[in-house]
Design a protein that fits this description.
Layout lengths: L2 E5 L3 E4 L4 H12 L4 E4 L10 H13 L8 E7 L6 H8 L4 E6 L19 H10 L3 E3 L13 H16 L5 E3 L5 H9 L4 E5 L1 H5 L23 H11 L6 E3 L8 H4 L14 H11 L6 H12 L8 E5 L3 E2 L4 E3 L2 E3 L7 E2 L2 E4 L1
Parallel strand pairs: 2-3, 3-4, 4-5, 5-6, 6-7, 7-8, 8-9
Antiparallel strand pairs: 1-10, 10-15, 11-14, 12-13
Helix pairs in contact: 3-4
Bound molecules: (4S)-2,6-dioxohexahydropyrimidine-4-carboxylic acid and zinc ion (ZN).
Length: 345
């Protein structure tokens, strides 16, 4: 297949940061995607409705004129979130979900939940209100190997939560393991998962090819090839429990190329093109539209997009670096070929 036209996609997991940095990255997503779920892990985190709405306004103000991209906002769940805030969220259509970070699991997660028992009453309310709960599914204990943190979370935290709250609507974000695929497949229709481009295209060898590769470091960390293959099979299966969430997570070049480099891969400048590459690898380009454009909207109970985009199989080279506010950022595949190009969007 040399050309592909399908319904305009949405990105169900995205980081756009703030200020000048946000201005540099948000258009990469807005040029292609109709909507995106905006992650709340700012400094300080987005914990109130007022913060979420102000952040939304700032994103809208950064868009090129005429662009109709819709940021779908989320709140950051903390030990101190109140039931009143959840009720407000339910009545605010611009804010569509609440994000659970185990404290310390990733970038700006220090305000995350320290102990699930502290938010048990909130989970009850989140279930009752049918608010989507977006989960960063990794345990944080230093005794647990970093490659096992997702499977350990599923067994010891997620499963007990879903046993207690069987109608909770959960998106297990950026899944990385065969165990996560199997768990989501076995779960109810209330349980879904997003899958990133980088976890579909890379295994953990990419962290160490010829030397240490900070631009391939993200959380959850890349896993073995068997896990990548399980993710690829899930994404291309046509099962609506799996949908597109890039987790494009921009950090300045200096913050990545450091003695303690940040986690996050900036895939937004070629996100849909990279998904096309992964789906083509699996001989499943016909399954891309459902994954990218239908199943996420269906899960969030939003309407599907109606216009289309067109990709052509023609290679182009990703720039070596891009501007990120006042500084530079190294995008995924910097200086390398991307097989597909968007020719109309
Ligand atoms: O790699 C990651 N980067 N994983 C996350 O969970 C957070 C994200 C970020 O915000 O940089
Ligand atoms: Zn993320």
């Amino acid at each position: 297949m040399q050309q592909l036209t399908f319904t305009r996609p949405d990105d169900w997991h995205l980081h756009v940061r703030e200020g000048a940095a946000m201005h540099s990255v948000v258009t990469a997503t807005a040029r292609i995607f109709s909507r995106a779920i905006i992650m709340p892990n700012l400094k300080p985190p987005v914990i109130t409705m007022a913060q979420a709405l102000a952040y939304r306004e700032a994103i809208l103000a950064a868009l090129p004129s005429g662009n109709t991209f819709k940021p779908l906002m989320t709140l950051y769940l903390t030990d101190h979130t109140t039931v009143e805030t959840l009720l407000e969220l339910k009545n605010t259509p611009e804010v569509v979900a609440i994000k659970y970070y185990p404290a310390g699991a990733t970038t700006n997660s220090d305000s995350g939940v320290t102990d699930l028992r502290k938010v048990w009453h909130l989970l009850e309310k989140i279930e009752e209100l049918q608010i989507p709960l977006l989960i960063h599914g990794e345990v944080t204990a230093s005794s647990v190997d970093i490659f096992d943190r997702e499977s350990c979370f599923i067994e010891h935290i997620l499963d007990p939560v879903l046993q207690s709250f069987p109608t909770l609507r959960v998106v297990l974000e950026h899944i990385t393991t065969l165990q996560a695929v199997e768990y989501v497949l076995a779960g109810s229709d209330n349980l879904a998962a997003t899958i990133t481009t980088h976890h579909l295209l890379l295994n953990r060898n990419a962290l160490f090819t010829g030397g240490i590769r900070p631009h391939h470091y993200c959380l959850p960390v890349l896993k073995r090839e068997i896990h990548r293959l399980a993710l690829l099979e899930a994404a291309t299966s046509g099962n609506p429990k799996f949908f597109l969430g890039t987790d494009s997570a921009p950090h300045a070049q200096t913050a990545k190329e450091s003695s303690c480099g940040c986690a996050g891969i900036y895939t937004a400048p070629a996100a849909i093109e990279l998904y096309a590459e992964a789906f083509e690898q699996a001989n499943a380009l016909d399954k891309l539209e459902g994954f990218a454009s239908f199943y996420g909207a269906d899960f969030y109970r939003l309407s599907r997009n109606t216009d289309t985009i067109t990709l052509r199989k023609q290679a182009w080279t990703m720039p070596e670096s891009l501007s990120f506010g006042e500084v530079q950022i190294i995008p995924f595949r910097a200086g390398e070929l991307i097989d597909w190009q968007v020719v109309s969007a």
